[in-house]
Amino acid sequence: MGRTRRTLAAALVAAACALFLWSGSAGAQEPPDEGGAAVQGTLVYTDGGERTTAEGVSITITSTDGAFSETVETDADGHYEVPLPAAGEYTITIDPDTLPDGVSLVDEDRTSLTLTFEEGRVRPAVFRLTTGEGGGGDTTFKRALRLTVEGLRFGLVIAMCAIGLSLIFGTTGLVNFAHGEMVTFGALLAYFFNQTLEWHMLIAAPLAVLCGAALGAALDKGLWQPLRGRGTGLVAMLVISIGVGVLMRNMFQYQFGAAARPYADFQLQKAIELGPVSLVPRDLVIMGLSAAILVGVASFLQFTRVGKAMRAVSDNKDLAESSGIDVERIILFVWVVGGGLAALGGIFQGLDQQVSFQFGFQLLLLMFAAVTLGGLGTAYGALVGSLIIGLFVQLSTLVVDPEFKNTGALLVLILVLIVRPQGILGQPERVG
Amino acid sequence: MNWGDILTGTLRASVGEQAIIYALAAIGLNIHFGYTGLLNFGQIGFMAVGAYGVAISIHTWGWSFWAGLAFGIFGAIVLALLLGLPTLRLRADYLAIVTIAASEIFRRLMGATKFRETTGGADGLSGYNGRFRELNFIPDGEYGFGPWRYNSGELWELVVGWTLVFLAVGLTFLLIRSPWGRVIKAIREDEDAARALGKNAYWYKMQSLVLGGVIGAVGGMFWALAQANVSANNFNPEPTFFAYVALILGGTARIWGPVVGSMIFWAIITFTNEALRSGIRADYVPDWLMDRTQVGTVRLMLVGVALILLVIFRPQGIFGDKREIALEAR
Predict the structure, then answer these.
(1) B292-313 and B257-281 are packed helices; what angle lies between their axes, rounded to 10 degrees?
(2) pLDDT at A121
(3) Closest CA to A214 of A306, A339, A344, A307
(4) What is the mean predicted confidence (pLDDT) over B271-276?
(5) Contact present, B179 and B199 (Cβ < 8 Å)
(6) What percent of chain B stands above pLDDT 90?
(7) Do A346 and A187 touch, CB atoms closer than 8 A?
(8) Could you say which residues from 363 to 422 on chain A have a Cβ atom under 8 Å away from some Cβ of chain B?
(9) Domain A140-419 carries which CATH code?
(10) What is the pLDDT of residue A342?
């Protein structure tokens, strides 16, 4: 026990040091010249399931007072960045005629954006692009099938992140609002290993997961266990977890900047056709691995001694304690497992999208939705709820605009509380 | 480093726009959390409803100024009822999750491209506060003393803002002394006991949620009018956490707690911000450690640390009474 604790501590200290030494290199945005601001953006679109960048698109930036005007073209990565002479209001205009053939703006009337720039800030200007017919003229059935697969992938990732959240709630009663930051931690650390230290993802990811587990252990040992010892109330702990979340999120932004960035490996892949759906190998592997790990976690909970003890503590803490289970040790274990899984979920999600300092926080509300839907505190409930939420988020884009897909999932959360507050797998008791 | 400027900025911030907005938000939270024990983590949702209620009704629909204000308050009442209906019968943490989720839903709807005609989408709305400026009866000129010198427009904002704060404080004071106030405090202490005495705890909690939400919405409306624009990005969950820090700092379940807390909170935040910025400009803070884009995150880190330390070591804040806080609830 002593040795593992020391190893954990060492790993965590190393991770923290790494995160802090990282500052200049790949970390924060290069600040523009004194007094100035900058505008930047990347033009990308999806072509047949592949992320493609738009090169040579002409972008014009004019200040609203007309004193400044500059036209640039996006580089090979679809990226442009223009330093601005001073803070103030600028209009960014895209020339739709210079877009690649078959590509158009999602919102064709929106060729120019007017944004206010603060001193010393780099602000993105986003133009959303699409390949004309929206997915190449798929039939609704084919689209539904593709969205189902994407929904499964997303659901598996949410499940990975949410199991820890649910287990922590079950064993300690804490609603951990900092769980999203544990997801971000894993994803950003993997980015650091992968992009800054230039290790391959296959090395970076497992290391980041270990560090995520160590973070879970450190949070429990360093913060939550002493608080439980003091007899701190659950509401107080909830507020504290929000403070932890705010602190960590801003530490991430301090180091990482506000931009979203991709990992170095597995980015541009050729899709393979599997019957009616085409998938990139990366997503296939992610789904396979997630499913395997989740089955592993489930059988661990079901069949091993520690797993049974976890469920026992979750069911009834006092009874578990009086039958000889070391409750504090089990809770520590829950934090370790939860932290590791959250980190892994973050890495998987980061591989599919990009990593940014707040993407875990954005996932947090979906995790809450999933966990509430499945039944707060039950491990299997988190799994079922996550899959449903993942599928719902993706499939809802069949009927509503994609920009509302996450909003819909949050509405589900509220509806569940009206209809069945204990969730799908929760015990029908009064939750109040 | 120019300490004079830093000090002036700090003193001005302690009575400024932000202090007013967060004082109102925190007064609302004080009724929710301090007196009734409701965990509302979506106060920003109420503020956003107030702000957008004013902006949309005046700018997009062309309503009159007063109708716009009424609409903002109406919106907050509807939101409170919608949130309270499913969650007030459930455990406290459900309300926390649902309120934060609802505030995010509202923010995303307001920022959506689809509703750009009405809400202005990601760019937001502006140019609806002409009437607010016209109502200004203070003649042009400079007023005040020391660091607190304001022109007519600024003074008008502060007068309106602090009047609202005093009205809200007065209302809280009267309500909490009334039988109604004793019932909601009883619910905070022991809901079952209150229910056993024949009080409809659910309905009292609902009234408290509506009242605190409306005060938050008033804060949001003042925000919209003082800043002359609303933008969905301003209504992310973070300001709610600020308001909690201000509330706990000043003292929960204290009439003046949220007001004093908000003043001190903004003084500290502004001081850190200004001191760090001028420290960087004068090269006292080395470049490898921090550049100016990172200053904003440092003050937010402070918010997080303050929240953690306050709740652990001094949950009653500066003026609070340890017996009167709902944090100990299990």
Answers:
(1) 140
(2) 66
(3) A339
(4) 88
(5) no
(6) 51
(7) yes
(8) 365, 368-369, 372, 401, 403-404, 406-407, 410-411, 413-414, 417-418, 421
(9) 1.10.3470
(10) 95
CB contact under 8 A, B327 and A418: no
pLDDT band, very low/low/confident/very high, at B20 (cuts 50, 70, 90): very high
Torsion, CA A203, CA A208, CA A209, CA A214, rounded to 10: 130
Q: Distance between CA atoms of A51 and A44, rounded to whole angstroms?
A: 7
pLDDT digits (tens, 9 = 90+) for A382-410: 888 999 999 999 888 888 888 888 888 88
**Contacts across the A-B interface (CB distance below 8 Å):** 153
Q: Which amino acid is at A115?
A: L
- DSSP-derived pairing of the beta strands A88-94 and A37-42: unpaired
Using CA atoms, how far apart are residues B302 and A396, in angstroms rounded to an integer?
Answer: 39
- What is the radius of gyration, based on Cα positions, of chain A? 23
- The H or E element that residue B157 is part of is helix B152-177
DSSP state of A261: B
For B33, which residue in chain A has the nearest alpha carbon? A235
CA neighbours closer than 13 Å in the CB half-sphere of residue B107: 24
Which DSSP string do the residues of A317-377 spell out, in sequence order?
Answer: HHHHHHTT--HHHHHHHHHHHHHHHHHHHHHHHHHHS-B-TTHHHHHHHHHHHHHHHH-TT
Say yes or no for a CB contact (<8 Å) between A243 and B308: yes
B85-104 residue pLDDT tens: 888 887 777 888 889 999 99
Q: Regarding predicted confidence, which is higher, A186 or B319?
A: A186
pTM here?
A: 0.80
Which of B241, B312, B326 lies closest to A235 in CB terms?
B326
The confidence band for B136, taking pLDDT boundaries of 50, 70 and 90, is: confident
Instruction: Burial-class residue B143 by CB neighbours within 10 Å (0-12, 13-18, 19+).
Output: middle
Q: What is the pLDDT of residue A23?
A: 41
Distance of alpha carbon B298 from alpha carbon A250, whole angstroms: 7
Q: What residues of chain A score a pLDDT lower than 50? A: 1-4, 8, 11-12, 17-35, 133-136, 430-432
Of B321 and A136, the structure prediction assigns the larger pLDDT to B321
Q: CATH assignment of A37-131, given 2.60.40.10, 3.40.50.1370, 3.20.20.190, 2.40.400.10?
A: 2.60.40.10
Provide the pLDDT for residue A26. 38
Q: What angle do CA A14, A15, A21 make, to 5 degrees?
A: 85
Where along chain A do its domains lie?
37-131, 140-419
Give me the residue label for tokens 């010393």. Answer: A120
Across all residues in chain B, what is the average pLDDT?
A: 89
- Domains defined for chain B, CATH in brackets: 3-328 (1.10.3470)
Q: Which residues of B touch A238 (CB under 8 A)?
A: 39, 93, 96
Give the ipTM: 0.87
Q: Please give the Cα distance from A31 to A51 (Å, whole number).
A: 28
Contacts of A60-67 with CB under 8 Å at 24 or more apart are A60/A92, A60/A93, A60/A95, A61/A90, A61/A91, A61/A92, A61/A93, A62/A90, A62/A91, A62/A93, A63/A88, A63/A89, A63/A90, A63/A91, A64/A88, A64/A89, A64/A90, A64/A91, A64/A114
Residues paired with A88 in a beta bridge: A117
pLDDT the model gives residue B326? 64
